[in-house]
Amino acid sequence: MMTRPSDPAFVSADRLPIDPVCGMEVDPDTELRADYGGHTYYFCNPSCLTRFTADPRAALRPAPPTSAAADAIYTCPMHPEIRQRGPGACPICGMALEPATVTLDDAPDAELIDMTRRFWIAGLLGLPVFVFAMAEMFAPAGVHRAVNVRLADWIQLALATPVVLWAGWPFFERAWASIVNRSPNMFTLIGAGVGAAYVYSVVATVAPGAFPAGFAMHGRVEPYFDTAVVVTVLVLLGQVLELRARRRTSDALKGLLGLAPRTARRADDDVDVPLADVRVGDRLRVRPGEKIPVDGIVLEGRTWVDESMVTGEPLPVEKEAGSRVTGGTVNGAGAFVMRAELVGSDTLVAQIVQMVAEAQRSRAPIQRVADRVAAYFVPAVVAVSVGAFVAWSVWGPEPRLALALVSAVAVLIIACPCALGLATPMAIMVGTGRGAAAGVLIRNAEVDKTGTLTEGQPRVVAIEPTGPASDELLRRAAAVEQASEHPLAGAVIDAAKARGLAWPSGVPFESVTGSGVTGQVEGREVVIGNAALLRDRGIDTSRFEHRAAAWRADGWTVIYVGVGGSAVGVIAVADPIKASTPEALQALRDEGLRVVMVTGDSRATAEAVAARLALSRDDVYADVLPDRKRDIVRDLQSHGRIVAMAGDGINDAPALAEAAVGIAMGTGTDVAMESAGITLVKGDLRALVRARRLSRATMRNIRQNLFLAIVYNAVGVPVAAGVLYPFIGLLVSPIWASAAMTFSSVSVIVNALRLRRIHL
Q: Residue 455 has what pLDDT?
């Protein structure tokens, strides 16, 4: 057998070495060998040795995965313990399986393509069947005499057969799997109902004499192909919508994986290599403005790095030899050399993706309530159907067997789970159209700071000295900062623009990595940065230290400005609290919710923001990384809390997915919004209060819909079984069972539409 391992073997005690070029096992006594990178490699023939010596790194590059879709491990979103190779359906709930690991594989979703094709073909073939049935049901008697209805029946049989036996075949497979696994679900009901309606209709078309004359309408036994077709098309539509929703979430996670660059530059030979070729211990060079390729440690150089992707905080972090850096974050103005420590699926970005995917599978959304009902409902319906057949066969009037068959089929048709299946998704669809929808009652709320409680962008919030002198200080600072790529420089320039100030362009500029910038403005040297930079230039900053200390206590970043060898002022930069935040938090408290702030920012900054928002110290978590945010959510849930997490960044995605309700800011990232259950389009937390009201109304509507669906079945199934026949002689024909099934679905839809009129 030929293999190509990702890490070619050398000589092993329990296996032969592998030729790294062709993947064949090799006799370790061969003379065809080569040393590279401190290891000895063995070859099966001279051509492999020649290819290896020509380009060893190419030969050692891992082979691309073969047939990714077929070889990948798939799992069930509702039952993560179900794992198998390749796509399929869950043997417990019947849901389509999804890949357990998110990758950058751009291969099309074969299952979505297949289900979409089945839906469109079923819809095109099924539409004439539905039109035939409706025309026949409501047309005047004269029309029935003029139209060759027997020909129409055969046309419906020809059209309905591919719809049921081809387009709907996956549902029969899932129904059979549920029976084999003794785990009845919605597909058991669908398979039984559609199968019964189709078989009944085929018999009614091919051998109508098998039914008693008393069941003839308009002088004949009518088929119910429309029931089988409509149910199949509706279930196919539901599958397509579900698979598309999963695809959108997967695309967002792939976008997160795509944050890392596709290549890395080796420091030893300054050659760009594919990211997949980077190994632990490799020395990599990162140039100014580039994305950091993998997680590692800085070996040489000094810079600042935008880590907002990880921490959510907008201010850059200084890095020097010994500092840790994270793949996907953005390097600033300095260049550095790093050593790769974590690569591939071990990087922080890959771990965040996996955490989000696992969290999304771990929670059962309200849409699956119908499956839990079906676990009891399916056996009950089947038992009633069998019981009705036996009862009519033993005690019914002649012709007993025909009446028994009609009764059993009517039970399965009237119990077909359209209303039960529509009860939840219809309410959620209308609710989301109204504004936002959530599946639980929120009793405990948790929010990220940056971008959720605050603006998420650094701004100048104070200047010392004040008055006209502050304008001159800001003008000179903007003149120097205009050439800087530092995020704080943007805050200074924005503040100068807001005041309508003008400054000279083309100022001579020098960046002092990790400390600040200097430049010549109108013949005078201007130094902007931290206190250490000014002191290194012989500038005394003591007159501003008291003010600077007070600002730091408020969690603000302090920039010192020196002109002509003297300190002339300080500028405070901070991420300001949104104007709507205090009002929104008070409204949440008035609703009885506890608000907890979780942030990757420092303890000092977090407590300063908390103080202005009247949050207690016990409700503040600072210096929190993505996995820790998720752990905080889990800890609150373990104490019986129902947690809603509000956030806007990639770093919030695992916690958003873990929480009972994830609430994303519409101004945030795609990954955050796809991981959340609710998105506040304008990024205003006041909308969270309205979303909660809508959530409660939606849940109330779902319960009403489930009540209607269950009551309909509780009444309809016994009637279809013939329980009223001894009293009033009523035996429901399958066509009326089909009509009743349709009416139940319409009642659920009409009730769900009431959500459009609720006041928020």
A: 66
pLDDT, greater one: 563 or 249:
563
| pLDDT greater than 60 at residue 69 | no
Total count of domains within the chain? 4
- Quick one: three-class SS letters along 542-591? HHHHHHHHHHHHCCCEEEEEEECCEEEEEEEEECCECCCHHHHHHHHHHC
User: Which residue carries 């109902």 as its tokens?
Assistant: 193
CA dihedral 6, 10, 11, 14 (to 10 degrees): -10
Question: Would you call 269 a catalytic residue per the annotation?
Answer: no
Residue 291 DSSP code: B
Domain assignment present for residue 342? The answer is yes
- What type of residue is 83? R
Residues 566 and 479 in one domain: yes
Higher pLDDT, 500 or 91: 500
pLDDT of 561: 92
pTM of the model: 0.55
User: Could you give the C-alpha distances from 174 to 71, 100, 199, in angstroms and in order?
Assistant: 22, 20, 19
What is the distance between the alpha carbons of residues 315 and 332, in angstroms, rounded to a whole number? 12
Range of the domain at 22: 1-63
Q: Which of 448, 648, 652, 684 is catalytic?
A: 448
What is the CATH number for 324? 2.70.150.10
Backbone angles phi, psi at 221, to 5 degrees: -85, 125
Of 45 and 342, more confident: 342
CATH at residue 669 = 3.40.50.1000
Sign of the C-alpha dihedral computed for residues 80, 83, 89 and 94 taken in this order: negative
Dump pLDDT digits (tens) for 571-615.
998 877 777 778 878 888 887 888 888 887 778 778 888 888 888
